[in-house]
Amino acid sequence: MYRRIPTAISRRPRVLAVEIDGNFQSMMSAILANPGLATAHQQLIPQTNKTTIMKTPDWNKSDIVLSTKGHARRINNKVNVPMLDRLYPVVSLFALAACAEATQENTFAPGDVRLSEQGYELHPVTTNLEFPWQMQVLDTGTILVTEREGRLRRITDGQLVDLPLTGLPDDIRVDGQGGLLGLAIDPDFNQNRKIYLSYAKNIDPLSALAVIRATLSEDEGSISDASEIFLGEPRDTTHHFGGRLGFLPDRSLIITLGDGLRYMDAAQDLTSLHGKIVRINTDGTIPADNPLIGEGSRPEIFSFGHRNVQGLVFDAERQILFAHEHGPKGGDELNIIDPGNNYGWPEITYGINYDGTFISTETHADGMQQPIHKWVPSIAPSGMTLVNTAAFPEWRGDLLIGAMNGPKGRKLVRIDLNDAGSIIATEDLLGDLQLAFRDVLSTPEDIFLATADFDGAIYRIEHAD
Ligand SMILES: [Ca+2]
Q1: Consecutive 10-residue runs of the chain (465 residues): their mean pLDDT?
Q2: 307 CA to centre of ligand 1 in angstroms
Q3: Highest CATH level, class, for 114-463
Q4: Rounded to the nearest whole angstrom, what is the distance from the C-alpha of residue 342 to the centroid of ligand 1?
């Protein structure tokens, strides 16, 4: 019933990683039949001071992972105590049953194929990532993926390579929403082998979003010649880093920068980089035709009034830059980004503070752009791709957006666009699977989905037979 799987490489020590094949009811029955073991294990986790990972194919996986995160944060003294107290018995009971019956089988065992009631299958590519954040595919077929925990990993010939890529910066600050974040491949990669990474850089006691350019080795096992081409404004929060990267057709690089949660008013301040989308050249210089140069503003700024942009796509056919962003409670947005525009945060918003108070009572204002779509309540959008995948001709030219806000927001959202980029319809997909999707990637062959879990997976989506 229970199978031991190898622990992933991590700076964090662990007791055990366990895959549980039973459903919740059978798990609880087994646990209740062994009350003595339950008592013993209640003491085990605090004493070992390590992290235990659990996942259940049949039960609500995201809920269990949330429990795991609660426990991990306890070790780091960043715990929300009331939440942990509520979740801790669940963590302990699951870990108990797993430890009691874990075997010594050490082969990598990818999870089951998941079938959505809408007729789609999710085929696991890997289930051994820690907070995967952004995927990209090389022409060799290798998938590069950042882990927020500070590693760059690769999947080659369908297998996750054990060793992370070497050569990454040693000042990645893994804290809160910060860590290793965005990844982009140079448009001329086949000539220059350049890749780009964004991360929360430690500037003790502060941090800032940094972007480096580096050369990927021919064997895809390391990066070298890393040089910092952008550094955002230092901040003393671990929230809202932005961090998505994308290229415009002129090969300038777009970088999204969050408002740090604490600096929301700075999103309207053109002398600040908080809450902005910026545009730079890949050597770190600033394009002479950036829209706000010469007006006393930061010359990097491409657009402003953003909260936390977590999805970015340039649509080459329609010549549109799409970006979505997390709103406060309610009010996530999809926007068309044009140079110099003000997207309104926090002067106008469809959302409210999480404590129920108002940020602004205004949803419209002169000189501020309206989203082309908004989500109330919030779905916590993350990752976005434009579909151009042979196996999904019916989705060609549509946007797919990951969503992480459970329970109703754990899904994949399809934005059906017409040739002009206007929205025809939206469709919610995979909601019955209750997976929180951090990133989505369309390639000519496949569509990949990365989950937002401490025990994260990458899936390939297919039509069910
Ligand atoms: Ca807005």
Answers
A1: 33 28 39 40 31 33 30 27 34 43 35 92 94 97 96 96 97 95 98 98 97 98 98 96 98 98 97 98 98 94 98 97 96 98 97 89 96 96 97 97 91 96 96 95 97 91 94
A2: 8
A3: mainly beta
A4: 8
Cα 45 to ligand 1 centroid, rounded to whole Å: 44
Catalytic residue among 71, 240, 306, 324: 240
Q: How many CB atoms lie within 10 A of CB 260?
A: 27
Give the residue extent of every domain in the chain. Answer: 2-101, 114-463
Dist. CA 275 → ligand 1 center (Å): 11
The position carrying tokens 């879990």 is: 453
- Give the residue among 400, 252, 261 at the shortest CA–CA distance from 324: 400
CA proximity to 409, closest of 401, 399, 419: 401
d(CA 234, ligand 1 centre) in Å? 24
pTM for the full predicted model: 0.79
Q: To which residue do tokens 């002067």 refer?
A: 347
CA 117 to chain centre: 25
Q: What is the whole-number distance in angstroms between the Cα of residue 344 and the centre of ligand 1?
A: 5
- Concerning whether 240 is annotated as a catalytic residue, the answer is yes
